[in-house]
Specification:
38% strand, 4-stranded mixed beta sheet, globular, Hypothetical Protein Aq_1857, Chain: A, 2 helices
């Protein structure tokens, strides 16, 4: 199972709260395969079969079963914060 640190949970929650465009009420981030088969984050909604990461009041991260295998025994964390207050997330 993927471990998500508290700092990463806070960063994901803050990022969802700052989205200005219209989004579904249950919007969350999803780990998906991007270019060159790299894992990346995308905005989406959870599916019934997803592995999810929750905060006290909502789902903040969804991972499809096939991607969950690639995240096994890994950690999503904040590696640094930029000068403009943005967080850099890493999957190690």
């Amino acid at each position: 199972m993927l471990t998500v640190t508290e700092k990463a949970k806070d960063a994901l929650t803050d990022a969802i709260d700052q989205i200005e465009e219209p989004t579904p009420e249950n919007a969350c981030f999803r780990i998906i395969r991007g270019q060159d088969n790299q894992l990346t984050l995308s905005l989406g909604v959870p599916d019934d079969q997803d592995v999810t990461v929750e905060t006290s009041d909502r789902t903040i991260l969804a991972i499809s079963p096939d991607i969950a295998e690639a995240c096994e025994d890994r950690t999503l964390d904040v590696s640094e914060e930029t000068e403009d207050g943005r967080c850099v997330l890493t999957l190690t």
